[in-house]
Amino acid sequence: MELGTFIQQFIELLEESDAEQISASTRFHELDEYSSLLALTIVAMVDEEYDVAIKAEDLRKAQTIEDLFNIIKEKKA
Hints:
Layout: H1 3-13, H2 36-50, H3 56-61, H4 65-76
């Protein structure tokens, strides 16, 4: 499980954001396109790609993409 791969998978879920502006430190809640639908899409991607179930609380706790990656990594361990 690598952060760079996770960021690329996250970017693939975005339709409006500039991919070049997305990094580990991106505060994904502040993206213009962040919505409950995108949150559900993120949950589904994490389940499919990493076989990890995350909850809305996990998304709320994570401030950045790297924070979310670390939560997933902890649950995978």
